[in-house]
Amino acid sequence: MIANLPYIVSEFVQPFNLVMLLAGTVIGIIFGAIPGLSGTLAVMLFMPLTYSMNAGSAIIFLMSLWIGGCSGAFIGSVLLGIPGSASAVSTCWDGHPMAQAGKAGKALAIGMIASFIGTFFSGIIGALLSEQVADLAFALGPWEYFSLCFVAITMVLAISKGDMFKGLASASLGLILASVGFSPIDAEPRFVFDNMYLMSGLGMTVVLIGIFSVSHIIVEYGKGFQELPDVDKESISGLGISLKEIKEQLGNILRSFGIGLGIGFLPGMGSGLSNLVAYSSAKNASKKPETFGKGNPAGIWAPEVANNAAIGGAMIPMAALGIPGDSTTALLIGALTIHGLEMGPMVFKNSGHVVYLMFGTVIICALLVLVLQTMGMRLFPKILKVPHHYMYPALLIISLVSAYVDSGSLYKCGMMLLFAAVGIFMAYGGLPTAPLILAFILAPILENNMLKAFQYTGTAATFFTRPISGVLMVIGIGCIFSPLIRSAIEKKKTAK
Fold this sequence. Notes:
With 496 residues, the protein is mainly α.
């Protein structure tokens, strides 16, 4: 890692990269703070604009969008009681009551410092552990890689909101869309219907921006916009937090950090789950659990440390194995592929300096976010009052421009609108988008390793007879049936 410091410094002293770092962080904070938007949406919208950049500039910009979005999500939770994204759902349970009690400045300060701790130290741990995990990955064969991808998808299915079968339908749709084009081994055309535009497959930008971004914008706009509650600006003054208070929360911080890092490392999980688990753990460990939900500072520390610690955790499997820890890292893997960087064990041999630039950006961006949020605390209410009737049409135009930049074809822009219609039907049908994103990104890895495994042995039994692959396959199958098992257990308890 130390050997790559000169390269990292050389990238950050370039004026263009500094502008990208600042712009990405500010845009990310805004997207994270405004309910209905998120850092993931920011990464997806602006990703095609990085294709003309060099790899270093693209990484700095995309990572800063992600870090800014994760760190800014607590702002809406504290000031409005409306989470900026799924990663800050539990923050609003104590953050907003504290703000209503006239302690908005203190609640924001806790959120800022907790986000910094989670991001900064998880970035350092990720940089230290990734290469060691990659070295272990060299012992893995196509059976283990197939099983890893299988587990990543099934874990998302297991925690799909509502019906697990809807998650399965979403993942299946992602696998089908990824199959369009020529097959990897025998180059047979699949689902192309003699259309020249489909021969090269469906572009990641066209599918994901259409289904995730454009459909999200249209659905949110169609719901209409209620007037957001006013924020007491007088209560946003000073940090209102002492070093003694931070020391009192040290046990809570360490526990939440471990939860966030661990859940982030698991394929397909991420900050959306870690903040809920950390909040529950903090409440269970508290001597006064009845104070949670009424403005307890521990209820802000726990989710904000955990959801930001999940960043470093998710980056470890992303860099070392090429397996995304969450939907955002899945997008980053696709974006880096465009720049000729294939994540996985070999990336440290071929482009290790680029991987450490990613972790370096996380660490530097954590510091920048803390500074910007501390200086701009009084601007938060104005960010939340951005007129939606101006913002959403602008985002729609950015989506269309991104699709055109990616393909240079108006036909692909039309396809993106078609996929936006698919995304709208998914939203109203209750189909989650996370399984589709992961399945679409992982499908090529899944298929290639499955075909290689069959070429080597010619039988599916090897997936279960090899120790690591067998354990992973059992875990994946267990994830699929876990909702049914939980339901059966709950019925037995109810009967008793």
